[in-house]
User: Which sequence fits this backbone?
C-alpha cells in the first residue's frame, strides 16, 4: 500500500518560515520524481516545486522561486519543502506527489503526471 504523508504545516506570520516533510512508503522511492503542489481557497491545485529522481534537478513555480527549496533524502524516503519569506498568498493546502519516472516521461508541472498523492497539510500565513 502506497502512502505519502505530509507534515509540518501550520499557522505562521508573514515573513516567517516553515518546513514541510513528506514521508513515503510502499514505493521504491528512488524511482520517483517528487513534487509539491498547493491548493488555495477557491483555487485550482497548482505546481510549487519538484525534484527529479536521478539527477536531483529541481524546478520551481515563479511565485516561489528564491523563497522555497525542495530537497529529498532517498535513504529516508522523504522529500522536504523549506519555505522562507512566507506571504499570505502562500496560504493553501500543500500536497506531496510522486511520479514514477522509470515508466514514463514526467511533466513536473502537470498533476496528471503524478501517480500518488498525499492528503495534504494546511499552511496558513497571516498578514
Assistant:
Amino acid at each position: 500500500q502506497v502512502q505519502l504523508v505530509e507534515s509540518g504545516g501550520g499557522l505562521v506570520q508573514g515573513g516567517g518560515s516553515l518546513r514541510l516533510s513528506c514521508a513515503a512508503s510502499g514505493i521504491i522511492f528512488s524511482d520517483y520524481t517528487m513534487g509539491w503542489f498547493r491548493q488555495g481557497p477557491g483555487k485550482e491545485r497548482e505546481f510549487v516545486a519538484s525534484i527529479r529522481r536521478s539527477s536531483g534537478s529541481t524546478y520551481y513555480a515563479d511565485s516561489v522561486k528564491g523563497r522555497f527549496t525542495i530537497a529529498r533524502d532517498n535513504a529516508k524516503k522523504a522529500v522536504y519543502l523549506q519555505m522562507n519569506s512566507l506571504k499570505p498568498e502562500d496560504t493553501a493546502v500543500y500536497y506531496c506527489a510522486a511520479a514514477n519516472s522509470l515508466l514514463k516521461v514526467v511533466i513536473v508541472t502537470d498533476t496528471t503526471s503524478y501517480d500518488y498523492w498525499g492528503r495534504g497539510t494546511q499552511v496558513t500565513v497571516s498578514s
Summary: DSSP finds no helices and eleven strands in the chain. The mean pLDDT is 96. The CA atoms of residues 95 and 120 lie 4 Å apart. The first strand starts at residue 3 and ends at 7.
